[in-house]
Amino acid sequence: MQKKFLTNLGFLILVNLLVKPFYILGIDAEVQNMVGAEDYGNYFALFNFTFLFNILNDLGTTNYNNRNVARNAGAIDDLFPRMIGLRVMLLGVFIVLTLLAGIFIGYNREQIYILGFLVLNQGLVATIFFFRSNLAGLHLFKRDSIISVLDRSLLILICGFLLWSPMVEIQFDIRWFVYAQTAAYALTLLVALGFLRGKLQNVLPRFDTMFNKDIIKKSIPYAILILLMSLYHRMDTVILERIVVNGDVQAGIYAQGFRFLEALNNFSFLFAVLLFPIFSRMLKEKQDIKALLSLSSRILLSGVMIIALTCFTFSLEIISWRYDAHIEEATRCFSLLILSAVCYSTVHIYGTLLTSAGELKLLNILSAITVLINLVMNLWLAPLLYAEGSAWAALATQTFSAIIHVLVVVKVFKLKLDIPLLLRFAGLAIFLILFGYIAHFMPWPWVLNALIMGVMGLLVAMMLKLIDMKGIAHIMKQS
Hints:
Order of helices and strands: HHHHHHHHHHHHHHHHHH
Mean pLDDT: 83
Structural class: mainly alpha
Strand content: under 5%
Largest sheet: none
Shape: globular
Low-confidence stretches: 474-479
């Protein structure tokens, strides 16, 4: 299992490394530069608003399906068409209720128009994730990896043409960005279905009332978890846009810092995508998960820590390099948000293990507490500090969430808290902070200084055996 995890993780990271950072920092950031913080902030708040209702679009069926296909691949022929029928019904409910909620809180006609397309896009994305859950459950990781970057690849082509082609002479409109997403997601969905077609006898939806009731009942714990996680991940900009003066501009400033966090979080999410079905199968077969948990934690957390602290050190230079406006405010947001990447990565690993073990009640309790903390801190800090206040709320919330997830896993799986490992992580962090101070005085361009800092951090991580190349090679050989 560890060999399968490592080999497929390598392929997944490779294809994502080639595509997603360029999309987020190239295309997405350039769209904001072209349309301005106000228009992009309005789009970003609407986009995050759809996430608050995304639970209706899925009801936890994707995670439920992933876990069951991973444990019993032979059930997919009977499960798939009935799950598709259920998801068609859920999509209709999601679209109607989200638009009604948008009207209720006071969005104007233009905002509702854009929201309509964003809701459709979320439906397409949710269906793609459902198809990917079947690919991952069948351990077809390479096909899953291709689908994971296909939509972004298509968006790069479409938006790249609209942004930079001399044939397009009029000013870029934020609505073009939304339309491009619709086209890219629709094409990706068709390719994903094609990848699954050879593994399925029937892909047409089948409506089964008794099955739908049973699945919804079983999926409710997953659904509650998704709802709570969506709330504390996405409500920051919705609150900013609604309650703060010039809220759309503040949401745009927040997006400038959040974009880099999103790029880094994509890679920790890749670990969760691969770990979920593998942990599920290992737990079913009563295999020891300690080695895989330790390996994935050391690789991911040390790597993210190196990148996050390097970005923190050169936060002003990075924001100035990528954006044209609101540099000082965006830098303060970015400095706080990028530090929370380590916390996000911790939750991705330990939360995935708890989900695989079916500990949904515990996860829902943790998430509910986290939502409450995030809401209170946003309502308190956003009116005082604007976008920076929401960034402080995000960092505090994610720090709490990471710590509590680790402690719960230690208790549930009867593990010992690895103090030597924590000290090695602390040693790496101290080295990076000290070297970061020195790096500012080095006489070379900041990009070179940042690269040197990253390489030095990698060497120290290897010396501390956080990234243990011999250990990885030994595990693969033994597996």
